[in-house]
Amino acid sequence: MKKIYIVGGDGFARECYMYLSSIIEEDKDIEFGGFLGHNGYGENTDFKKLQHLYKGDVSEHKFADNEYVIIGAGMPKIRKIIYEDLKKRNIKFYTLISKNSKINEFVEYGEANIFIYYVPSPDVKIGNGNLFNGYTITGHDVEIGDFNFLAPRAQILGGAKIGSMNTIGANAILLPHAKIGDNNKIAPLSAVYKGCKNNCYMAGNPALKIGDNNA
Predict the structure, then answer these.
(1) Angle at the Cα of 46 from the Cα atoms of 58 and 97, rounded to 5 degrees
(2) 158-198 pLDDT tens trace
(3) Class for the domain spanning 107-205
(4) Hey, what CATH topology would domain 2-94 get?
(5) pTM of the predicted protein model
(6) 8 A C-beta contact, residue 31 and residue 2
(7) Beta strand pairing status for 208-212 and 200-203?
(8) What are the tens digits of pLDDT across the range 51-73?
(9) Where do the domains of the chain lie?
C-alpha cells in the first residue's frame, strides 16, 4: 500500500488533501499519511479542521519504501525549493491527478506534477513540479518546463512553449506558437500573442510588458 504525505503548508495543501481523498475513496491501495512542514514552511500554518493531521517537519520523518510525497505549495519558487530538497534525499513523488483530469498516453510528463481538472491535447511535453490548478487546457505540441503555476482556466494553445518558474494567471491565454522564457508572470485575462523572454510581468490583450517579475 502506498502512503502519501503532503509537504508544505499553504491553503493549497488542504486542496491537495481534498483531491487525494477522492482518489483514496476508489483506490484502497492508497492511504494518507499526513501533512509535513518544510523548514518552517507549514509548521505554523492554520490547517483549520485538518490540524490533527499535521505530523511535524519533513526533516524529522524517515520515509519507508512505500511512502511518497505531494508538494502542497502553490508558489513556483517554494515548490522548487521543496522539490530539490526532497530529491537530494531520494524521496519519491506522487503525481496527483484529479478524477476528472484526462491524462492519456499522448502526454509526456515528469515527476511531482499536480493536475486538477486538466484537459490536454496530443503530444504535450511537461517537465517536473508543475501545478495545473483547475480546468487548464494545453493544445497539441505544447512544451512546458519545470515548476510553473497555471491558474484556473489558463489556456496554452497549440505549439506554444513555456520555460520554467512562470505564473500564468486565471483565464490567461498563450496563443498558438507563443513562447515565454523563465520566471515570468502573466496577468489574469491576458492574451500572449508572441511571448517574452525572462523575468517579465505581462498584462493586457495583446499582453505587453508592464514591469519586471521580481517575486
Answers:
(1) 60
(2) 999 999 999 999 999 999 999 999 999 999 999 999 999 99
(3) mainly beta
(4) Rossmann fold (3.40.50)
(5) 0.94
(6) yes
(7) antiparallel
(8) 899 999 999 999 999 999 999 99
(9) 2-94, 107-205
